[in-house]
Design a protein that fits this description.
The structure is a homodimer.
Chain A lengths: L10 H14 L8 E3 L6 E4 L4 E10 L11 H17 L3 E12 L5 H16 L4 E9 L4 E10 L14 E5 L4 H10 L6 H8 L7 H7 L4 E4 L4 H12 L2 E4 L8 H10 L3 H7 L6 E5 L9 E8 L3 E4 L14
Parallel strand pairs in A: 4-5, 9-12
Antiparallel strand pairs in A: 1-2, 3-6, 4-6, 7-10, 7-11, 8-10, 9-11
Helix pairs in contact in A: 1-3, 2-3, 4-5, 4-8
């Protein structure tokens, strides 16, 4: 069946194999893909002697809502979230798999949009979609695995040392602002809603940080303070974030005013932008895209302007 | 928290990170794992210059039921299903990720059993569990990605040629018999129920087939005839299965008699044993574990004893 013939059809109508054939048409294969989708497994040429791998889940109602994000948007976000994990190691992704569990009444058009958005985001870093699975479920679950490579040693979470500078790359708090807007039934400021639907992870910043001497790095998916906490814990250090150094864009002030929130709380607590948080030895010129927002010291835990933070600092998954 | 302290607890009690810490304890890391679970991504040494990768989903109520299979059983089956995909390429798995979406009221003990079963099955081929994700959902979804390597060119689905011999390795129909038993509220014949809960994919047969000149191969997860159909379609040939060559173990005869079914239908239609179906040029000595069950000819489609098959020939996912 062609896409035109399935307009208005559901997954139950076209079946697993009918859908797979249509999805695969959205996935161009890079030169490193020796065997692509369609067999029991894909075969990838790996020249670098190693693979960086990460897996993530997105669940409808928890990580996205269909009224707030199209299939295309969810595809973009699912890819961005995973590509960002390789970015946070200082690497670049080259291959991904995407699996979809969904109700039989899901419109085929939604699944095709998901594939389109996913593929387009992957194309931003030149990565190929090489496989996946489709099955029926009560709710939509998108499972992604990403494979990539690093040009040198990966940047882990545990290398931060007292005296390092804490720096950030990419937009931060924008997606949280967009989500707050959508949650109240609004569609503007449009720039924030778009930031939520189409995060723009700083894909060049991860490799730049690795090349530029970063001692530790993590991507911000669960909130700046929560991720800073993971860095501090893994490295056995204390981290202080200085709010005066945080960029709080004008639209966030507008949303904060309308919702009675502190605009800085979006920046400190928000995830989903997939900014990178990294530490560098003091005096190291920060790579392009990074700006200093805090300091690393002996001790443990995360403080804001030298004091414990009282607001919401991220979210947990249970 | 230790496992003892969480006895009787749910995922909602211990939270995402509490559970991850406990799960990771079940996952020993092989020498090729340079960075294991706990960072944004894992880092694997890959000596072979390539990676074979596949992803699968298992959904509660569709691929398993908690009344019929323990967390340990589901873990074993989830691993087996994915390891089998690498086996079907003629390769061996070295690394897997496992992600779990589950309700907050899922007992921690169930998740730990899942990890235990998954890890034990992976250990059968020496593979390491290097990462994953956990999140809340309404129903349980287990998403797995497996990475592996082949010793020579992979065996694909599209290489079967007229004149080839069709051969099978591993138990076939046993798991389907076990599922039929469970579906009627019985627990015996126990050997079939155990075959459903703990499939025993012929992990040595895949590499043996590749070394022994197999022209095409697939693993039987959706039924022998359905998978034979995939082979025939991908290779552009016709396949005939001879029922006289099929092994129908005595317990299947007993189940068939009790349920009014044709015992051969379990062998032709059943999946979940993860047997391998392969084709070899006529005259090639079949590798250890394989037995001839049919022939390949010019044409298309699958026949049984030379005629179209009227029974259920597998299942689709929508």
């Amino acid at each position: 069946m062609t896409s035109e013939q399935t307009a208005g059809h559901t997954l139950g109508d076209v079946g697993e194999f009918g859908l797979i054939a249509q999805l695969v048409a959205h996935f161009p294969q890079g030169e490193h893909v020796l065997v692509g989708p369609g067999d029991d497994a894909a075969l990838l040429r790996v020249k670098q002697g190693h693979v960086v791998v990460s897996s993530d889940l997105m669940v409808e109602g928890r990580h996205f809502r269909r009224v707030w994000a199209s299939g295309y948007d969810v595809g973009r976000r699912a890819a961005a979230q995973n590509l960002s994990d390789i970015n946070a190691m200082g690497g670049r992704a080259h291959s991904l798999t995407i699996s979809l569990a969904a109700p039989a009444d899901l419109p085929v058009a939604w699944a095709l949009e998901l594939a389109k958005g996913f593929s387009e985001e992957c194309a931003l870093v030149g990565a190929s979609v090489v496989g996946g699975d489709i099955t029926r479920a009560e709710e939509i679950v998108v499972a992604v695995t990403v494979l990539g490579a690093v040009a040198q040693a990966p940047v882990l979470r545990n290398g931060a040392a007292a005296g390092d500078v804490l720096a950030i790359a990419g937009r931060q708090g924008w997606a949280a602002g967009g989500l707050a807007v959508l949650g109240r039934g609004f569609r503007s400021p449009r720039v924030l809603v778009e930031a939520y639907r189409h995060p723009e992870p700083p894909y060049d910043a991860g490799p730049a940080a690795a090349a530029g001497g970063a001692t530790a790095m993590i991507d911000i998916s669960d909130g700046l303070l929560a991720e800073a906490g993971h860095l501090a814990s893994a490295s056995g250090v204390a981290i202080d974030v200085r709010t005066a150094e945080l960029e709080v864009p004008e639209p966030l002030h507008a949303v904060a005013a309308a919702t009675g929130a502190d605009p800085v709380s979006f920046v400190l607590g928000g995830g989903d932008d997939h900014a990178l948080l990294a530490t560098f030895p003091a005096g190291t010129p920060l790579p392009t895209g990074f700006r200093a927002i805090g300091t690393v010291a002996e001790g443990q835990g995360v403080t804001v302007d030298g004091a414990p933070y009282a607001g919401a600092a991220g979210w947990t998954h249970f």
